[in-house]
């Protein structure tokens, strides 16, 4: 028999993806947003400006307290003032990345970091698009999806933001909301509406993969370049190899696979390298996570 194995569109077979992103190192992110996300076990991605006042006012929190909460940081340039030369632009990206690495000293380097272009006046930009892209690539930055935020693109209300969540689920795609201030600071989303959004997301967790832009980017890239090869398939054991044409130095997130198994199997042991999990058979198939690479996947009843 040849096992029928597929890669689920989204992690853990979820219906859709949702991402929460926050710009400018606002103090309300430290005081309001992060405690609420932490309470719910949700990830948010914070596009920081380490050279600006708001970050400096809460530097201990950004450097020492927040990195251990499960939140992610993105590069929003060091000062959020633009760049008048290629050299200045390079410094803006380098110094922001340098601070992010300082906040997460245990993470490998180089690695992919999410990037969001700051909104600044046109006269503060004197470099071309090609020069911007060249520097972004130099520092392994991955540009986030186009900014889409409350109070700019959608009303900062419970109903309007809930509609974005419903659209993600209905279409089975990725959607995101990008915030500035929450309950304070600038371009403000009211705290009550924001908390209602989090409650909405919490109620939809069985359908939503709530994640960060780099994890989403890695999953999509790996899924598109992945192949499954059958090494063994019989009534006693299955052996597979999952490969991917993406660079494993940067693309290392597990993909979720679903493999059809023999009818008598009710529970499976799935091993890859030193990792082993038990997984129930549902609808004749077993679902599990595997990392593309040289290590075989073994499935046994």
Architecture overview:
With 301 residues, the chain is of the alpha/beta class. The chain has 2 domains: 15-211, Glycoside hydrolase/deacetylase (TIM Barrel); 227-300, Immunoglobulin-like, CATH 2.60.40. It has helices spanning 27-40, 53-57, 59-65, 86-103, 129-138, 158-171, 191-203, 213-225, and strands spanning 5-7, 16-23, 45-48, 72-75, 113-115, 141-143, 174-179, 208-211, 226-233, 238-244, 255-260, 267-272, 275-282, 285-290, 297-300. The protein has an 8-stranded antiparallel β-sheet. A hairpin with a 4-residue loop joins strand 9 and strand 10 (238-244). Helix 1 packs parallel to helix 7 (191-203). The longest helix has 18 residues, at 86-103. The radius of gyration is 21 Å and the shape is globular.
Outline the low-pLDDT stretches: none
Q: How many helical elements? A: 8
Helix content estimate: 25-40%
Cα-based radius of gyration, to the nearest Å: 21 Å
Strand order of the largest sheet: 1-11-14-13-12-15-10-9
Major beta sheet, specifics? 8 strands, antiparallel
Summarize the helix and strand pattern as letters: EEHEHHEHEHEHEHEHEEEEEEE
> Which CATH architecture of the largest domain?
Alpha-Beta Barrel
What percentage of the residues does DSSP assign to strands (E)? 25-35%
Computed structural class? alpha/beta
The geometry reads as globular
CATH superfamily placement of the largest domain: Glycoside hydrolase/deacetylase
What is the number of beta strands?
15
Name of the CATH class of the largest domain: Alpha Beta
């Amino acid at each position: 028999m040849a096992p029928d194995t597929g890669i689920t569109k989204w992690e853990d077979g979820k219906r859709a993806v949702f991402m929460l992103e926050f710009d400018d190192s606002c103090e309300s992110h430290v005081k309001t947003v992060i405690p609420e996300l932490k309470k719910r076990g949700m990830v948010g991605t914070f596009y920081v400006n380490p050279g600006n006042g708001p970050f400096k006012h809460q530097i201990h929190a950004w450097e020492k307290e927040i990195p251990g909460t499960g939140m992610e940081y993105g590069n929003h340039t060091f000062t959020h003032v633009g760049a008048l030369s290629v050299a200045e632009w390079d410094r803006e990206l380098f110094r922001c990345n340098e601070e992010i690495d300082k906040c997460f000293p245990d993470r490998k380097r180089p690695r992919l970091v999410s990037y969001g272009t700051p909104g600044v006046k046109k006269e503060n930009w004197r470099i071309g698009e090609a020069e911007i892209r060249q520097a972004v690539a130099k520092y392994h930055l991955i540009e986030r999806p186009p900014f889409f935020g409350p109070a700019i693109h959608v009303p900062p209300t419970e109903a309007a933001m809930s509609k974005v969540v419903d659209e993600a689920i209905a279409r089975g795609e990725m959607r995101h909301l990008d915030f500035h201030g929450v309950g304070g600071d600038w371009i403000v989303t009211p705290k009550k509406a924001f908390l209602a959004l989090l409650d909405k997301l919490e109620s939809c967790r069985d359908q939503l993969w709530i994640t960060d832009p780099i994890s989403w980017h890695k999953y999509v890239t790996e899924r598109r370049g992945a192949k499954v090869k059958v090494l063994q398939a019989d009534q006693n054991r299955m052996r597979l190899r999952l490969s991917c044409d993406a660079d494993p130095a940067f693309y290392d997130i597990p993909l979720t696979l679903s493999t059809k198994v023999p009818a008598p199997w009710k529970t499976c042991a799935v091993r890859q390298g030193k990792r082993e999990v038990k997984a129930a058979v549902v609808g004749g198939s077993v679902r599990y996570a595997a990392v593309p690479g040289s290590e075989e996947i073994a499935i046994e009843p």
